């Protein structure tokens, strides 16, 4: 389960609005338990004779302070810290273009609106349906969780990969938040809205299709993992002349599974992948102390076929990404140490 218990359901992005429920996490109080604790205290512990035993001094180490929080509180804190770094437009601007900006107001990635859907788009979706039986188990599982699929190539469990797991969870949730805001702005219909003959094999989510949230999240996570491994930001142009890294093959498969399921068009995934890589690079740069990142732009896709890695957005310049907070930098550095000890 992901951030705050609700965010593991990444296929159900409507759950992400329940951030006001943070007080519910941990041990819940109830009247009968409180009465029982009072009774036990009076009988077993005896009278309270107030006297301070020690004076706590906060550690200078962000990681040590973080270790005193529950898992849910760690996720919440890091989510809030990362949220301060990135902002997305959640309305339809006059130029039909959405963007994500840094905290300083610099544009990191812009996305043009989706194309007009034609018979060719639906035909392309129909051709993908032939893979439904082969991909059925993945499709159903990925409605609720995609992070375990990256666990096939990177350690991110408790202990040896604990900081990596925490970082990737936050990256996934931030990406979900930002992509949902852009989705709301474009309010793009789903395939079934154009033609019920699509017959999706999972329930169509009750929110906009464009860009794909699964693609955004998966490519942001893949980008962070790749930076943890190499120490360098991801250059999308390298996909055209070098083997595709395993983490990006995983993210591409996750994105395509949503097309096969019948809930996304290809351009939804292409836009989401572009946004995800831009977000991953921006978050990584911030966690590395800030600095230059490449701006990306995804233009309205006019074609209906093609491989995702050949349809990513274009580089349009560079901007400065401000540094992340001390605790985010500490978590990122700890995750890099974990991955430096793991085989690539």
Descriptive report:
This protein has 344 residues and is α+β, with helices and mostly antiparallel strands. 46% of the residues lie in helices and 9% in strands. The chain is built from twelve helices and five strands. It has a five-stranded mixed beta sheet. A hairpin with an 8-residue loop joins β1 and β2. α3 (71-83) packs across α7, α7 (162-186) runs antiparallel to α9 (213-230) and α7 crosses α12. It starts with 30 loop residues before the first helix and ends with a helix. Mean pLDDT is 86; it is low at 1-26.
The main β sheet shows up as:
5 strands, mixed
The CATH superfamily label reads Phosphatidic acid phosphatase type 2/haloperoxidase
CATH architecture type: Up-down Bundle
Q: Which spans have pLDDT < 50 for at least 5 consecutive residues?
A: 1-26
Descriptive key words:
344 residues, alpha+beta, Vanadium-containing Chloroperoxidase, domain 1, five-stranded mixed β-sheet, 5 strands, 46% helix, globular, disordered N terminus
């Amino acid at each position: 389960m992901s951030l705050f218990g609700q965010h593991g359901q990444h296929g159900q992005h409507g759950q992400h609005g329940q951030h006001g429920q943070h007080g519910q996490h941990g041990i819940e109080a109830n009247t009968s338990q409180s009465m029982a604790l009072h009774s036990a205290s009076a009988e077993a512990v005896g009278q309270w004779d107030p006297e301070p035993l020690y004076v706590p001094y906060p550690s200078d180490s962000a990681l040590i302070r973080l270790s005193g929080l529950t898992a849910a509180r760690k996720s919440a804190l890091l989510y809030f810290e990362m949220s301060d770094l990135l902002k997305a437009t959640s309305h339809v601007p006059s130029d039909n273009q959405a963007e994500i900006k840094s905290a300083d107001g610099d544009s990191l990635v812009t996305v043009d609106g989706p194309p007009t859907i034609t018979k060719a788009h639906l035909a392309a979706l129909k051709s993908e349906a032939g893979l439904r039986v082969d991909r059925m188990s993945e499709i159903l599982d990925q409605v609720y969780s995609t992070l375990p699929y990256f666990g096939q190539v990177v350690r991110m469990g408790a202990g040896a990969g604990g900081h990596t797991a925490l970082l990737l969870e936050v990256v996934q949730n931030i990406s979900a938040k930002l992509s949902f805001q852009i989705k709301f702005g474009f309010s793009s219909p789903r395939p079934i809205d154009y033609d019920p003959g699509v017959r999706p094999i999972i329930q169509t989510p009750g929110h906009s299709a464009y860009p794909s949230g699964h693609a955004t999240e998966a490519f942001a996570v893949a980008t962070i993992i790749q930076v943890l491994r190499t120490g360098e930001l991801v250059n999308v142009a390298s996909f055209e002349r070098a083997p595709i890294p395993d983490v990006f093959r995983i993210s591409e498969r996750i994105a395509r599974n949503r097309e096969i399921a019948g809930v996304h068009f290809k351009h939804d995934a292409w836009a989401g992948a572009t946004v995800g890589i831009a977000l991953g690079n921006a978050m990584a740069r911030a966690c590395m102390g800030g600095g230059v990142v490449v701006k990306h732009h995804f233009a309205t896709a006019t074609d209906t076929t093609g491989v995702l890695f050949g349809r990513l957005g274009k580089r349009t310049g560079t901007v400065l990404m401000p540094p992340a907070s001390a605790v985010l930098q500490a978590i990122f550095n700890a995750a890099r140490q974990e991955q430096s000890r793991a085989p690539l």
